[in-house]
Specification:
Strand order of the largest sheet: 2-8-5-6
Distance between the termini: 14 Å
Largest sheet: 4 strands, antiparallel
Number of helices: 11
Strand content: 15-25%
CATH class of one domain: Mainly Beta
Bound molecules: zinc ion
CATH topology of one domain: Jelly Rolls
Helix content: 40-55%
Order of helices and strands: HHEEEEEEEEEHHHEHHEEHHHH
Shape: globular
Structural class: alpha+beta
Length: 276
């Protein structure tokens, strides 16, 4: 790892010792929009920890159509099934908004979790969080009207990316929440007129978060509370580590003791920082 600064909040929430177990194996990559990270029914080589941008998890619904079932940004990890020992993806994971990320080989993740029960427990807690969130989205899709779901989706996307301006087309939004484009166009126009968002060609920006939250269904608040309760912290609520601690920690982990599993793995793999 070159940079001492970690922006992914799941990584930042790890204890120093747990982070030390995976830090030597993390690689910085730049994820380009529309890149497919995992194909359905295909082995996953890496999991990804976004530092900016958004990754969509898409489920097949027949006739070649895909619907978003989960959205990952810098709060989480792309490739949750790997935590549960599942290495073949059942979903397609595609970069929605490009940005920097850290990636980790699935085998290194599994080895580190086997070595450190506390790391396994933390990642299992994250998997539990994802299960809760995706089931909430399922309930939301069955219960709440499109306008409320769209407001919830925009807030979730803004929470998970580094900026409030989201380069999202209305066609993309329609595909993500599984409704007709004309329906999204009508809702977006109403949000714009109401001063909740502003739109430009191919993008939108959150102007009034409180107003958008008042339109969103209760699922947004439920899901946000689940995040704070299970995962702790966010860019709106503070972070466990400061830059100095991370830097000191990286100094620590570059000196793995000879003969340890960590040192053995470090010596057998050459790093390609900033590769893609
Ligand atoms: Zn809802």
């Amino acid at each position: 790892m070159n940079s001492p600064v970690i922006h992914n909040e799941l990584l930042r929430s790890l204890s120093l010792q747990d982070y030390a177990a995976i830090c030597p194996f993390l690689e910085r990559v730049s994820l380009k929009a529309n890149r497919v990270l995992h194909h359905a029914r295909t082995p996953m080589d890496y999991v990804y920890f976004p530092e900016d941008g958004l990754v969509s998890v898409l489920a097949e619904v027949g006739d070649g159509n895909l619907i978003e079932v989960w959205l990952v940004g810098r709060e989480g990890m792309v490739g949750t099934p790997a935590i549960l020992g599942v290495t073949v993806s059942r979903h397609r994971r595609i970069v929605h908004l490009g940005g920097p990320a850290l990636r980790l080989r699935v085998e290194d993740l599994v080895n580190a979790m086997n070595d450190r029960p506390s790391l396994r427990a933390r990642f299992l807690q994250y998997a539990h969080y994802v299960l809760l969130q995706t089931s909430q989205i399922g309930a939301c899709n069955a219960k709440h009207p499109v306008e409320q779901r769209l407001a919830r989706w925009i807030l979730m996307a803004a929470d998970r990316s580094a900026a409030d301006r989201l380069p999202l087309t209305q066609q993309t939004l329609a595909r993500m929440i599984g409704v007709r484009r004309a329906t999204v166009t009508r809702c977006i126009a109403a949000f714009d007129r109401g001063g909740l968002i502003t739109t430009a060609r191919g993008s939108l920006q959150v102007v009034s978060r409180p107003s958008l939250e008042s339109v969103a269904c209760p699922c947004y608040g439920i899901m946000r509370n689940q995040y704070f309760q299970l995962m702790g912290g966010s860019r709106h609520g503070g972070v466990p580590y400061d830059t100095g601690v991370i830097r000191a920690h990286e100094h620590l982990v570059t000196r793995a003791a000879p003969g340890t599993k960590q040192a053995d793995r470090e010596s057998t793999r050459s790093r390609q920082p900033f590769s893609d």
